[in-house]
Structure prediction request, 343 residues.
Amino acid sequence: MATFWFNDPPPLTHARSGAAQPTQQPQQTQLAHQPHLSRLLQVPGFVTFAVRIDRAPEWLWLALLAAALWPTFWWMGQRMVDGSDDPLGLLALAALGTLAWVHRRALRAAPRLSWLAAAMAGTLAATAARAHLPDLASALVALLALAAGLVAFLPARVAVAPVLGLSVLSLPLLASLQFYAGYPLRVVTAEASRWLLALMQHDVSRSGTSLLVNGHLVIVDAPCSGMQMVWLGYFTACVVALYTQHFMQHFTQHLSSHASRAFDSRTFLTRLPAVSMLVLTANVVRNTLLVAAEASGAHLPGWAHDAVGLLVLAAACGGIGWVMARSVGRPAPVLAPSAQQPQ
Prediction:
């Protein structure tokens, strides 16, 4: 901690070769040019308040940021409770809370100012946008602001992109995505299933989202669009990326910080296309199996439909976990001091 002299410090003397050197005059401190600050620092109450602000724990600032965004959380809760959307966003919020808890001992005492400024600007923008933008759009800005505040205090080794991804996934947006993107996904799924069924020697044709297989009409309905599988796939990608990185850091502490950092935002973003392909392939396989069963005259009960969906989802999430968890490359070995000497 820096020490300020309100009066002149004692003179400094130096001795060299038995002769006394002339006394050095101290330089003027910045407080001499800021009389108002000098007066404030002489007020005990102001100093005590400033010390308390400086020593406030990191979780308090995050709690205050979340409290400032309470209208967004109130709207999200109402939308989840009234049944207008699936409550899957709670899993993403729980993952963000768990991430903060896991790194609670490594949170920054001095946050990154750029991300903290982004969090403050986003909070103000979300508050102002509630009167002019749809609730979902203002909630998106608010949750991105909350994620930016969390990133400001998290250690630098934590990748930023998965944190922002979890904040987006915490929105109650499945119903909106189903409305806008559900039909195109159903058309793509039906066409891919038609191609696979044709390879299996079935007489199949497609019209919109309907398939005529061996004289049986099968409709690819809204649940077959795979929107929930898309959400769970990206959620798995974000969680595996964050926690795989945490455990890699835990078990590679003997390496240098650069060598042990094997996952970052760029790596995460470059692997997202593979996540999308795995999700789309899994949904096509699930739909093809169910359509083939219906076309063969074997009417599966509801629990069989659910079982097939869960098995395919588990396989897809396992593949996504493998894609995200595999290392970027072997870190450079740390050479011993003797080995670093030129021959």
Notes: The longest helix spans residues 265-295. The longest strand covers residues 204-207. Residues 57-157 form one domain.
